[in-house]
Write a structure and sequence with these properties.
This protein is an alpha+beta fold. The protein is built from 7 helices and 11 strands. The chain is 26% helix and 38% strand. It starts with a helix and ends with a helix.
Length: 248
């Protein structure tokens, strides 16, 4: 895969896996990283926490990019249990990757090559090492939503929907494809929306635009990620035996 194509893969593929960096990148102006403290922001964080406290739930994440984009990520489907396992399946073109998490251990099946541990794929080629980084930084939707809410300047509530613009640094962090990345981001802008029903998060969406530069390759990004929560309390996770062995 050419470097520019790989950059596109990283920037868009990662958009369905991770939310943002917990800390500003080196050189970032810490004054720009504002964790909003409005009542509406607090309500969204509380709704995300209530979701996280559920016994289990499933979700589907979709990434929408402009029609003329050379890369169009497929959906990401996931299931998670409180204090238990999390399974994720995502696609990009004809490629499918699955991974299962339990605590700090993970098993990965990339492109049908069989289940491997993180250490096994981390010692392989660059895409393998990148995938390892994404999985280590992974957050389930409840954690993602709470983190993203902290990057909104001020959320406004209309009915059951909360929305607002991202801080510049928040948008930059959502455009970076992993923590500690050497990618440079400019002209970053974005917004976020959260849907809450009966005090529990049911859906969220974040849109980011900007320019990303990595290893001398540049890419303009216009990405909208939507995460829909479903099957709360009724989700069941079936983990293949080969994957379980890699988690032991």
């Amino acid at each position: 895969m050419k470097k520019c194509a790989l950059l596109g893969f990283l920037v868009l593929f990662a958009g369905s896996l991770i939310a943002a960096e917990s800390k500003p990148a080196a050189g970032a102006d810490s004054k720009q990283v504002i964790v909003a403290d409005s009542k509406a922001n607090d309500e969204v964080v509380a709704a995300a926490k209530k979701l996280a406290d559920k016994a289990n739930y499933s979700w589907r994440s979709t990434v929408v990019v402009p029609e003329d984009s050379p890369f169009h990520p497929g959906p990401t489907d996931g299931k998670t249990e409180k204090d238990g396992m999390t399974s994720v399946k995502l696609s990009f073109g004809d490629n499918t990757t699955e991974f299962v998490l339990k605590g700090d251990k993970a098993a990965v099946n990339s492109q049908g090559e069989g289940w491997k541990s993180l250490s096994e794929i981390d010692s392989s080629d660059f895409p393998g090492r990148f995938l390892t980084g994404m999985i280590k930084n992974f957050k389930a939707p409840a954690g993602q939503a709470a983190e993203i809410a902290g990057y909104v300047k001020e959320l406004k509530k209309e009915g059951d929907v909360y929305s607002g613009p991202l801080t510049e640094e928040g948008a930059k962090n959502l455009l970076r494809f992993r923590r500690g990345s050497d990618a440079t981001v400019s002209n970053a802008k974005g917004s976020a929306k959260f849907w809450v029903k009966d005090g529990v998060l049911t859906k969220f969406e974040f849109k980011v635009t900007g320019a990303v530069s990595f290893n001398g390759n540049d890419m303009d990004v216009d990405r909208t990620t939507t995460v829909e929560i479903k099957d709360v309390g009724t989700t069941k996770i079936d983990v293949p035996e080969d994957a379980k062995k890699k988690l032991s």
